[in-house]
Amino acid sequence: LFMLIDPFKRKISYVRVSVTDRCDFRCTYCMSEDMEFLPKKDVLSLEELDRLCNTFIDLGVKKLRITGGEPLVRKNIMQLFSNLGKKLGQGLEELTLTTNGSQLDRYAKDLFDNGVRRINVSLDSLEKNKFKKITRIGDLDKVINGIMVAKKAGLKIKINAVALKGINDNEILNLVNWCGENKFSLTFIEVMPMGEIGEKRSDQYMPLTEVKSLIQTKYSLTEDSLRTGGPARYVHCHETDQKIGFITPHTHNFCELCNRVRITCTGEMYMCLGQQDKADLKTPLRKSENDQLLKDVIYEAISRKPKGHDFVIERKEKEQFVPRHMNVTGG
Ligand code: SAM
Ligand code: SF4
């Protein structure tokens, strides 16, 4: 009745919310080394985030993913998980998180206790020095330990690895093997042109067709029909009995089944990751204690959700890119 349905008859059932633009890492493909973060007053409070999420649940959203920046560096973030966790089974079907893993040793058990069952952990390398090089700050041992604590706490883990040419291409097989041994799902992501990072994007770009060919030199893969409404295509890996996903925004159009919107930590809703159009939800949120104004703005914005994106990475002097950084939109 009050569902969010866009002009292409896609039902919006999944919202990704960035709870902070801050991060304890500075991954080379995501931020520049001297990234400037937003003034705190521009960022939604935990109470505002809670209210916003609850409004979406009211509007029929079934799945929430908390992301960032690094969501687990936001102060008192477990309060938000605790509040939203209470909505599980009351409209909300899944509460989940994307994290760099740096704080998992500390928070994995609380996440599980608040109803989180699956998490995505971003991990691009299993070599200590290279991991440091990619993240500029991260400590691989701490992340691996956090992942193992999370596994012990009962969380299902999916590893997301960005494929980076000349950087982690020689670790693809190792990542497949390690995830297989630990019963983690694995998804490879092509680097996307999000935000200025002070380096040329096309130098990092590695098409996932190459990643797949590399995996096939050692493992047998078959196509898997699983579609989750997200951009990933899956294959089944026989030797490890695992699904491996590929997110290839440049080579495939994945928009027909898109069921999601993204909200930045400042309360801007992006109806498509690859487009500029957005709606300001912070103003109605702060203007009125009644949620009706907010709901009206959300309905109106969903009626503008575009059919698809048009990313381009090419070997040109000036690259086309989406000027906002991934840590603001949330991955
Ligand atoms: N800090 C958390 C993390 O790293 O998982 C959550 C936010 S991060 C922006 C979400 C995902 O976006 C990560 O998996 C990261 O690898 C990915 N990402 C960031 N910048 C990207 C880019 N330019 N292209 C493709 N993926 C990117
Ligand atoms: Fe931080 Fe995640 Fe961006 Fe890396 S990808 S800098 S961990 S927000």
- Indicate the radius of gyration in whole angstroms: 19 Å
The coarse overall form would be globular
Strand content: 15-25%
User: Based on helices, strands and strand pairing, what is the structural class?
Assistant: alpha/beta
Provide a short characterization of the protein structure.
This protein has 331 residues and is of the alpha/beta class. The protein has ten helices and twelve strands.
Can you walk through the features of this model?
This protein is α/β, with parallel strands linked by helices. 29% of the residues lie in helices and 18% in strands. It has ten helices and twelve strands. Strands 7-8-9-6-5-4-3-2-1-10-11-12 form a twelve-stranded mixed beta sheet. Helix 1 packs parallel to helix 2 and helix 3 (104-113) runs parallel beside helix 5. The protein starts with 13 loop residues before the first strand and ends with a helix. Residues 312-320 have low confidence and may be disordered. The protein binds S-adenosylmethionine and iron/sulfur cluster.
What topology does this entry show?
Elements: E1 14-18, H1 46-58, E2 63-67, H2 77-85, E3 94-99, H3 104-113, E4 118-122, H4 128-135, H5 140-153, E5 156-163, H6 172-182, E6 185-190, H7 208-216, E7 221-224, E8 232-237, E9 242-247, E10 260-263, E11 268-270, E12 278-280, H8 282-287, H9 292-302, H10 326-329
Parallel strand pairs: 1-2, 1-10, 2-3, 3-4, 4-5, 5-6, 6-9
Antiparallel strand pairs: 7-8, 8-9, 10-11, 11-12
Helix pairs in contact: 1-2, 3-5
The chain binds S-adenosylmethionine and iron/sulfur cluster.
Iron/sulfur cluster binds near residues 27, 30, 68, 326 and 327.
